[in-house]
Amino acid sequence: MAEIVPDLPKSETALPANAGDVTDSAVLRAGEGVTTIKDSVIGKVAGLAVQEIPGVYALGSTPVRAIGAIVGSISRSELNPGVTIELGDDGVTVHIVLVAAYPVALTALADQVRASVTQAIEGLVGMTVTAVNVTITDIYVAEEPDDNDVD
User: Which of 57, 66, 85, 95 could connect to 99 by a Cys-Cys bridge, CB 3.0–4.6 Å?
Assistant: First the structure.
């Protein structure tokens, strides 16, 4: 059986033999351009790093979390409750406000938050972290089931 191949249009432009090669000048230009990372992105990186730490119940204080729940149902775009970013000439200062889970050691938790936030921002964003200030506003105590509610 004969194979029928349609006539494909012929290109009028011949490509040079090295058309796909990377030239030295292209390598030199690879670093050109501007990268902008918004404060909200840095805040989100910090917030995600904190949320992964055992012993952190929630970010933000109780009133901030309540307002955040209402606002979060409307828009989640620029919301990083409990995380504030300050950009300076020498790097980033991060302020974290959180609620700890009981019975975690609070100073050890704050140290873990500092280490995790610093590693996340410096690793993912590539900016120097000058300080991570941690404020623990509350302790969450899980309610025990009431043994008197036997049917």
Answer: 57
